[in-house]
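Attaching the record inline, Q. Sequence:
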Amino acid sequence: MKKIYNIIVLFTFLAVLAGCEKGLDPVFYGSLNPTIFPSTVSEYKAYAMEAYIPFTLRWGWSDNNWYYTFFGPEDGIIQLFDAPTDLMPEFTSWGDGDVFWNAKSKGNFAPLVAQSRSRSHFEKVRIITRMTKTIDDLEKATVFSNEKERNQLIGEVKVARGWTMLNLLQLFGPVPVITDPAKIGDPVAEADLTRPARTDYVNWIISDLQFGADNLEKEAPEYGRFNKGLALSLLMRLYMNEKDFTNAETVGRQIKDLGYSLVETYESLFREATERNNETIYAVSCDPNSTGRGTDGNFNIFSKYIFPDSRSWGHVFAASWSFFDSFDALDTRRALLLDTLTSPDGTFHDRNDMIGAVLFKYQPIDNPGIDVPVVRYADIMLMLAEAINENNNGPTIEAITLVNDVRGRAKIGELSADDVASKEAFNNTILRERGWELYFEGLRLPDLVRHGKWPAAMEGIPGKTPGPAIYPLPQYAVLDGLVQNSEYQ
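Structure, as predicted:
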């Protein structure tokens, strides 16, 4: 099925993302004359769409360096936030010395201090500068006769900026960014690597995401573009990350009022024929004809990383056996984890030769066109239950019902009395349920940190040697004047 809106393909020729060697300033490449482009509404739309590049699912993108996207198969949120946790085993197939894969899978990020610019997501601070410039240009543009259309584009870029900042916050803590367009082009401001106060940084994200929520519709103009539900969901994730459960509950109820609902079967969420549904709030739209290179669109290549045989480049993304065994045997979600497998050549695989259960969420095999859900209503329901539990100092009927509804779709019984015996017990239950519902969706590390279960959750999993839950800042940026996270000083 051809995807309706292949956002990036038409606009990558602009090649204007950041690529300097120091500071926060953007460097512009390409032959377009900024004095005449953009000059029409359609050109401003193309200009705004550049903000989507960090959220594509491709191998990466290049300007004068190579950079990874947040959803790519390598160094995307699955590897960053799921692989280090109890959900996945240590990955050693490419050698202990390959810190790019192995350190993350161990949950010990110290070796990543040596990552290069092309390997480090910290470089996205420059993309934030670029987005700030785009927002300013959209605000100053005189070609818009329809303010709703202008605010739609500004809202999309602000969601992209806020989302980028949220991801960087969860990886590194607050990082220096430029959100004031007056500072762009100022050599002193662009060279300033002072890390902002957490409160200021969080408030900048709130402002961006709230603008997006106020100016985007539930249904985006084209499939694949950001929408109101996404903006609110990211805002809720931010509040949960900061343990501001009062505001998290408020936003969660706003999302609930938008009318999302659970689909009948879990598996259908990850199948191309049923990928557009009333539960998936936002997904990365993938093109079955894409190879993830050049000006190709998004593609889903995860099946190449999951098999312990010649169909795969390595059994990279697997479920740890302890996580697999934690499921109720009747749980339909466990059906997408395979504890035995027969290869095309007839070889039988089981726990004797597999590092973990095969992740079978995205099928059929080698179909790059299956969309990748990023935010689902089940996630919102579980976050809302957690916020209600925190705000009421214990479980309520409403919160318990939200969790039971998610469990009901998985064909397992309602929560036991022990599961809801206290505020702490219910929080532990919710964390467990989030693992079962949202595995391989890039949410586990922030969940464990929020619940105070890092590093305890990794106990007993072979090869896990967890260190600090926060990633180190790259040494090259520290040498430029950035203050390293205290855990690595």
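The beta strands are 61-62, 66-67, 280-284, 318-319, 337-338, 341-342, 348-349, 357-359, 372-376. The CA atoms of residues 5 and 223 lie 6 Å apart.

More tomorrow.
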